[in-house]
Amino acid sequence: MSKHRLLLTEKAFARVGAKIEQLGEDITLSAFNQAQIQSFNITKLEKPNNILDATVAWLSLDIYQNSNPAMLDEILLNSPGLDWVHTAIAGVEAPIFGKLLERGVRITNSDAQAPSVAEFTLGNILSLFQNHNKIEEYGKKKRWAPIPFREIQNTKWLILGYGSIGKELDKRLRAFGAEVVAVRRNSNSDDPAYVTTVNDLGKLIPQCDVVVLACALSRETRGIVDRNFLEKMKPESILVNIGRGGLILEDDLLSALERGNGIETAILDVFDIEPLPENHPYWSHPKVRVTSHNASFGDGMADRADELFLYNLECYLAGQPLRKEISNE
Question: Which residue in 69, 73, 253, 302 has the fewest CB atoms around it within 10 Å?
C-alpha cells in the first residue's frame, strides 16, 4: 500500500503523470476533472474517498484558471491526512493557506512566474522609453522621421520586494546598464549590498526613475503607495505594479497623475478588483497602461511550474527540504 496519495487534476496527470509514477510505489495518484470540483458536495461523500484521502495536493495552474476555488478550499480543509500542498502561484495571502498552516500542513508556492514577470516589466518600460506608440503611428502614416528615445542605461530603478521576481528583474536590468536598489522587509546576509530594508524607502523613492512593486500584500504593505509615497517620486518617473492591487491607494494614484509634478506614468497589471470594472477611470486615463494580470503568461512559465513541483515531490518523498516552503510566522 502506498504511503502517500497525491491529488492532482487530470490535465496535470496527462502532462507529468508518467514521470510521477516513475518515482516509485510510495505514491498513488488521484486525478480529478474540473466538472467533479464544480459539482462536489462534501456532505454526500462516503468515506474513505480518494479525493479526501490525499496526503499531498498539487494546485496546478489549470485549477486556478478553470475551477471553483472555494470548493477546492473545502476539499483541502476536509482532508484529514493532508500533509503538504504545493500551489503553482506565487501569492499565498488567500485565507486557505493560513488555515492550512495553522493545521500543520506544509505549503510551498512557485517562482516559475519570475522570469516572465521580469521580462514583462522590462518590455513595458522599453516600449515607453522607445516611443513604440509613435513608431506605430509613423508607420501607418508612412512618415520617415527619426524618433529619439530614452535609454535604460544609467537609469535608476527601485524594486520593492527582493524575492524571485525582484532578483530576476535585477539580473536583466544590470545587463542593460541600469542602477538597481531594492528594499525588502527583512535583511538577508546573502543579498547584494544595494538591497536594504523598508526603513530606507523614503530616501530612495526620490532618486529613482522607475519604481517597481514586486512585494507581497500584507498588513504592512497594503496601501504602501499612498499620497506621501507618490509625492516623493521623481519628476517623469514611472510606477509599475506587478505585485498586488492592494499595494496602491487608487484615489491617491489618480490624484498624483493629475497633478503631474512627479510620477509621469503608471503601468498596472494587478488590481484590487479583478477583472477591472469597465467604468474604472484607469481604462481611459492617458497616463495609465492597464494589462489584465498578464505578467506571468510567458510561454515558458507552465513548464517551469511543473518542473518545480516534480523537483519538490522527489525531495518530499526522500525526506529532503522543499524549495519555496512558506514559514508559518
Answer: 69
Q: Above pLDDT 70, what percent of the chain?
A: 94
Sheet hosting strand 84-87, strand order edge to edge: 27-32, 4-9, 56-59, 84-87, 106-108
Q: Give CATH 3.40.50.720 domain extents, the chain.
A: 4-112+300-317, 114-290
Q: Which of 182, 212, 183, 216 is nearest to 89 (CA)?
A: 216
Please, which residues have CB within 8 angstroms of residue 216's CB and are 6 or more apart in sequence?
91, 93, 161, 163, 243, 244
CB atoms within 10 A of CB 57: 25
Cβ neighbour number for residue 31 with a 10 Å cutoff? 17
pLDDT tens string 41-73: 656 555 445 688 999 999 999 888 766 667 788
**pLDDT averaged over the chain?**
93
- Residue positions counted in the chain: 329
Q: Is-above-0.85 flag for pTM?
A: yes
Place of cell 536583466: 172
Q: Which three cell numbers stand for residue 5?
A: 496519495
CA-CA distance, 319 to 317, in Å (whole number)?
6
Lowest mean pLDDT, pick from 17-31, 55-69, 87-101: 55-69
pLDDT digits (tens, 9 = 90+) for 197-210: 999 999 999 999 99
CA torsion 43-48-53-59 (nearest 10°) is -40
Distance (Å, whole) CA 192 – CA 306: 30
Give the number of other Cβ atoms within 10 Å of residue 203's Cβ. Answer: 10
What is the C-alpha to C-alpha distance for residues 275 and 283, in angstroms, rounded to an integer? 12
- 215 DSSP 8-state letter: P
Place of cell 493532508: 82
What is the CATH code of the structural domain delimited by 4-112+300-317? 3.40.50.720
Burial of 166 (0-12, 13-18, 19+ CB in 10 A): buried
- Residues whose CB falls within 8 Å of the CB of residue 163, separated by 6 or more in sequence, listed in order: 111, 114, 184, 214, 215, 216
* CB atoms closer than 10 angstroms to residue 297: 14
pLDDT reported for residue 48: 45
